[in-house]
Amino acid sequence: MSLIEILKTLANENRLTILEWLQDPVAHFPPQKNGDLIEHGVCLGAIARKLGISQPTATNHMKVLVNAGLVTPTRNSNWVYFRLNKEAVSLFLDDLQNKVATQK
């Protein structure tokens, strides 16, 4: 995904907040019954509840983040968990810095 498309993805406050939370899920979410926060990621329902939005709205936000490559989904039975793709975030930040540093 292009730098501009990722910036558009991050321009939404809820999506940016989700990324902040996924950076340190143990600090932002209670333990889950059906999946480890670190190993599996955070359940969609927990993200929706914490944001105070419906699950369909949370699903839409997560699809955008997944399509941007910033978040990785993992399906476990009927549950979908999400983890921050730290490598993709790091590459995005490097690309942004290189783009800004080379602009005159």
TrEMBL record:
<keyword id="KW-0805">Transcription regulation</keyword>
<dbReference type="GO" id="GO:0003677">
    <property type="term" value="F:DNA binding"/>
</dbReference>
<feature type="domain" description="HTH arsR-type">
    <location>
        <begin position="1"/>
        <end position="104"/>
    </location>
</feature>
<dbReference type="InterPro" id="IPR011991">
    <property type="entry name" value="ArsR-like_HTH"/>
</dbReference>
<dbReference type="Pfam" id="PF12840">
    <property type="entry name" value="HTH_20"/>
</dbReference>
<dbReference type="InterPro" id="IPR001845">
    <property type="entry name" value="HTH_ArsR_DNA-bd_dom"/>
</dbReference>
<keyword id="KW-0238">DNA-binding</keyword>
<dbReference type="InterPro" id="IPR051081">
    <property type="entry name" value="HTH_MetalResp_TranReg"/>
</dbReference>
<dbReference type="InterPro" id="IPR036388">
    <property type="entry name" value="WH-like_DNA-bd_sf"/>
</dbReference>
<dbReference type="GO" id="GO:0003700">
    <property type="term" value="F:DNA-binding transcription factor activity"/>
</dbReference>
<protein>
    <submittedName>
        <fullName>Transcriptional regulator, ArsR family</fullName>
    </submittedName>
</protein>
<dbReference type="InterPro" id="IPR036390">
    <property type="entry name" value="WH_DNA-bd_sf"/>
</dbReference>
<keyword id="KW-0804">Transcription</keyword>
